[in-house]
Amino acid sequence: MVIRKSSKELLIDSVLELLSEYPLEKITVSKIAENCSLSKRTFYYHFSDKYDLANKAYYYQMCRYCEENKGTLTLHGFLLHLAGFIHEHHTYFSHLAQYKGQNNIADFNIIHMREMFIQIIEESFKDEVSSDLFNVITFYIVGMTHYVSDVIAVNTDMTPEEIVTLFEKCVPESLQKYL
Fold this sequence. Notes:
Helix content: 55-70%
Order of helices and strands: HHHHHHHHHH
Strand content: under 5%
Shape: globular
Number of helices: 10
Number of domains: 1
Radius of gyration: 17 Å
Largest sheet: none
Distance between the termini: 37 Å
C-alpha cells in the first residue's frame, strides 16, 4: 500500500535533510519549499518561519513516539528514543544549537519537553503533577536542554545508551520512579 505524506510531513522531511547539510542561517523558506516541491504559500500555511519548522520537526517526531506508546511510556523509554533521534540527526541538532536568537531550539525544547514529561507521568503512571514536581521537571529539563545544546550536539561519539545513562544519573529523586 502506498503511504502518502502530508505537506507538513514533506516540509519536515525537507528541513531535516537540509539541516543535515547546512546551518539554519543558510537555509531559506524558498529552499525548504523547493526541496519538497511545495510552494512558499504552503509553507506559511503550516509554519510561521523556518525556525518554527526546524523546532517543530523534532517536536513532531517526539509527539509521534509518545502517541505510538501512549499509556505505556516511561521516562527511560522516552529519553532513549530522544537520544536515538539526537544521535541519528546529529548534524541537524548541531546546526540548530548554533542559533541563539528568537525561537531557538533550547527555549522551544524547555516548554515542549516539560509538556511531554508531564504527559508521560499523568498517562502512564496516573499520577498528578504537583507544583513542586512541575518545578523539578522544569529544572531538570533546563539542565538537560543546555547540556544537549552545548555538548551532545557537537559530540558524535556518544551512543544513545550512553546519553540516556548520563541523563538518568542526573534525574532528581522525585522523578526516578518514572524511569
